[in-house]
């Protein structure tokens, strides 16, 4: 139960008033923390979640204050657009268990399929449109049939030299038929750039298949990105496109702002389960005593401090912030935590343009392949049943063009500055110029001539245009060797568990799915350590094509003999 605020602005609070051994403090209210809270509350634990900024973390909506008029809601800003690939399984399961009025399958029913992915080119080159209908997907694949399918798809959509397309298709086949030992032992330590032999290929090949796949999708550089991480995602997208393993459409998004379609219903459901949600409290320290966590310190913006005590602690705080709260004694107690704080993060930030006219771009995501700032976008309101103009803003805005900026250290085309060197206004103008350079380079009028009604840049980014430019909500990236630095959810500290996207998990990539999976693993750790008889949380793993298991078994033998993959032609 909560203590009384004492002199000096300090109080002591118990995480809950539940039964002994069942009190859990979840530190961090992003997707991972809320997932752990959800699973543990369903199993009879008393849970309190502490979140400094906003529940949902990087997945939350960020309404633009003061923009709603005459009863309309504020314009829906966000950290970045939401994207739910068809191979997500853990997160959709959680969403299906969050009640939503009118939906038999809860918040999961708020997902809508995109119909087409657009790969937009600049410089007068025609854009590539990739339909996502898998009606003709083959039901059985041999390695050779798979190679032909990949080569044919690439030739149809990429317009690159046939020999380069065939080579890339073969490289993907090499990965698909590689055993786990080779994937973790060789490809995790091979840069994607080297794996696809980009240095020997044409600039178009480098742009489309080396740089674009990594910088625009996983916000890391092809020259250093782990082949295991990149190719693992390529594999998952491939099976999703072929509708294997009960996978859904490769491109899915919500039918309303994230808070409305998912986060707020989730918070309401957690409250109904007895979860206590404490907003505005930042974890500033953790104490170790006798080899276990003895408590955590949280502080609010007013400077008031509370000491949190619980039986079990789930740390769901982003890794860049863990560096400041895990003291030397905690790091010494578990070598895996010492490695974890050396993980790399980078900027991937959302910018929303609120438009008076809906641009005819595509009903799906767009990848701006030649943009120096590695842009991707989605026109959101076309997927929302509610009338945008009647629901948000001042009544003149009809759509939200949401853009993710993944490269902040290269010079743009308008001001000749990096994104970090630009002011916020200059960032908005520069991104608009890069969008137009792609969408209107062949003479089409796509974006409104009058520009935008307004724009919103993630407030986590501060002091742009100065040497102190900072981003308090960064993204884990995956250079070679990252897997060996990622900790497990269960630590060597008996009452400390990790529930954030940097935890080693099956999907590997730092995503909402990865955070959800980590939260599930943390919950299972608490169940095991507490001796609970409640059923363990289900962990869904990515699909493995049965047709390729024999090839992987053969590759395992070759790997142990020091031989290359059978299909690796060098």
Automatic annotation (TrEMBL):
One Pfam family, short name: Amino_oxidase
Note the SUPFAM superfamilies from the entry: FAD/NAD(P)-binding domain (SSF51905)
Q: Where is the Amine oxidase domain?
A: 32-527
Q: What's the domain of life for this entry?
A: Bacteria
User: PANTHER family, alphabetically?
Assistant: AMINE OXIDASE, PROTOPORPHYRINOGEN OXIDASE
Name recorded for this polypeptide: FAD-dependent oxidoreductase
């Amino acid at each position: 139960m909560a203590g009384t605020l004492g002199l000096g602005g300090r109080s002591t609070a118990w995480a809950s008033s539940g039964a002994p051994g069942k009190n859990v403090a979840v530190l961090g209210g992003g997707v991972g923390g809320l997932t752990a809270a959800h699973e543990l509350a369903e199993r009879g634990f008393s849970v309190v979640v502490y979140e400094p900024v906003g529940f949902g973390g990087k997945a939350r909506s960020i309404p633009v204050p003061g923009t709603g008029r005459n009863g309309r809601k504020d314009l829906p800003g966000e950290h970045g657009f939401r994207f739910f690939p068809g191979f997500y399984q853990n997160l959709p399961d959680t969403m299906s268990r969050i009640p939503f009025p009118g939906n038999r399958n809860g918040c999961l029913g708020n997902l809508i399929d995109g119909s087409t992915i657009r790969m937009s080119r600049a410089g007068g080159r025609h854009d590539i449109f990739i339909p996502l209908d898998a009606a003709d997907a083959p039901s059985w694949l041999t390695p050779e049939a798979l190679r032909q399918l990949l080569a044919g798809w690439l030739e149809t959509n990429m317009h690159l030299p046939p020999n380069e397309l065939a080579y890339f298709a073969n490289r993907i086949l090499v990965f698909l038929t590689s055993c786990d030992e080779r994937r973790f032992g060789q490809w995790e330590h091979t840069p994607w750039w080297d794996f696809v032999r980009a240095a020997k290929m044409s600039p178009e090949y480098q742009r489309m298949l080396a740089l674009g796949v990594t910088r625009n999708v996983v916000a890391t550089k092809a020259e250093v990105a782990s082949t295991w991480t990149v190719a693992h995602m390529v594999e998952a997208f491939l099976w999703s496109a072929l509708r294997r393993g009960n996978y859904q459409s490769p491109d899915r998004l919500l039918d309303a702002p994230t808070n409305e379609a998912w986060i707020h219903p989730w918070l309401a459901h957690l409250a109904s389960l007895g979860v206590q949600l404490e907003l505005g409290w930042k974890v500033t320290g953790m104490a170790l005593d006798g080899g276990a966590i003895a408590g955590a310190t949280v502080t609010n913006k007013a400077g008031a401090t509370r000491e949190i005590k619980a039986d079990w602690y789930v740390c769901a705080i982003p890794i860049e912030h863990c560096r400041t709260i895990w003291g030397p004694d905690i790091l010494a107690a578990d070598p895996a935590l010492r490695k974890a704080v050396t993980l790399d993060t980078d900027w991937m930030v959302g910018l929303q343009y609120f438009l008076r006219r809906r641009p005819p771009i595509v009903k799906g995501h767009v990848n701006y392949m030649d943009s120096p700032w590695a842009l991707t976008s989605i026109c959101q309101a076309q997927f929302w049943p509610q009338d945008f103009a009647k629901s948000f803003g001042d009544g003149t805005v009809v759509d939200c063009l949401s853009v993710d900026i993944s490269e902040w250290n290269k010079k743009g085309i308008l001001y000749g500055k990096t994104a970090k060197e630009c002011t916020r206004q200059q960032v908005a103008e520069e991104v608009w110029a890069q969008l137009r350079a792609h969408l209107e380079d062949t003479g089409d009028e796509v974006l409104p001539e009058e520009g935008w009604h307004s724009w919103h840049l993630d407030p986590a980014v501060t002091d742009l245009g100065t040497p102190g430019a900072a981003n308090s909500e960064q993204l884990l990236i995956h250079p070679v060797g990252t897997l060996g630095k990622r900790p497990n959810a269960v630590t060597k500290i008996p009452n400390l568990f990790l529930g954030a996207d940097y935890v080693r998990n099956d999907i590997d990539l730092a995503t909402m799915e990865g955070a959800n999976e980590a939260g599930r693993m943390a919950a299972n750790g608490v169940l095991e350590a507490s001796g609970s008889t409640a059923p363990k949380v289900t962990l869904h793993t990515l699909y493995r094509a049965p047709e390729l298991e024999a090839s992987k078994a053969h590759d395992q033998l070759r790997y142990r003999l020091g031989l290359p993959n059978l299909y690796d032609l060098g």
